[in-house]
Every structure is written in C-alpha cells, then in structure tokens.
Design goal:
By secondary structure, this protein is an alpha+beta fold. It contains three helices and six strands. It has a three-stranded antiparallel beta sheet with strand order 1-6-5. Strands 2-3-4 form a three-stranded antiparallel beta sheet.
Length: 133
C-alpha cells in the first residue's frame, strides 16, 4: 500500500520559501519587493522566476530550478512544523498554475487479501451486547 500526499503552495509561499532558503545558505537575493512569481515547464524540469522591483525602480528576476524549488518548500514546511516523512519520495508538479509537492510514502503495514481477512474474522469473538436500561 502507498500513501500519496499533495500540498499546494501559493505564489507568495513559494517566493517566501525560496528567499528563506537562499538567505539560509548565504546565496544572493535581489533587494526589493517581490512583484511576480511564474513557472515554466522545460525539458529539464520546472523553472521558477521570481521578479523583484528593486529600490531604484528597476526590475530583477531570479531564476530557480525545480531542485531548488523542492528544497525550498521542504525547508519551508519543516520550519512551520508541517509533518514531513523522511523516508519518502518528494517531487513537485504544476497544478493550475500553482506549485504542488507530492509526497509518496510506502506503507510498512503488511497487507492481506480479502479471503485472509474473512478467514481471520471467523475466529474473532464479538463482545456481548449490554442490554439498554
């Protein structure tokens, strides 16, 4: 059995995640306010663009790879106490113009088929009914 979780992020959350991660690892971050976040699918995966209006009125664009976006949103979730299974596959998709992180978890619970469940159920003693007063 597998479990599949999907977390969908707003543009503001993705921008915040990217900026927090870049600051954490001492990578450059343009000055100014975020004006726009956009995504483009390429043959190498998803590419994000965060556009800033810098203090002088000029526009600067920061391009980030799919790997960086994924790392940023994982860190973003962990810093906000969102449960994140360590042993899982994590990947991102673009869903309705928003980034979504898919988390595939393989269950360690053993499974049984319907016949085995029925056979096991025959030996279960049911609790006695307590008469209503």
């Amino acid at each position: 059995m597998r479990e599949l979780r999907c977390l969908v992020f707003s543009h503001a959350e993705v921008a915040q995640a990217i900026l927090e991660r870049r600051r954490h690892v001492n990578e450059s971050v343009p000055e100014g306010a975020v004006r726009d976040v956009s995504y483009q699918k390429t043959e190498n995966g998803l590419v994000g663009s965060v556009t800033f209006d810098d203090p002088t009125g000029n526009e600067q664009t920061l391009h980030v790879t799919e790997t960086e976006i994924l790392a940023a949103i994982v860190k973003y979730c962990l810093s906000r106490q969102v449960p994140m299974p360590v042993e899982s596959e994590k990947f991102i998709h673009l869903v309705e113009h928003s980034v979504s992180m898919m988390i595939k978890v393989r269950s360690s619970i053993p499974t049984i088929d319907a016949r085995q469940a029925a056979e096991r159920g025959r030996g279960i003693k049911r609790p006695k009914r307590i008469p209503a007063h």
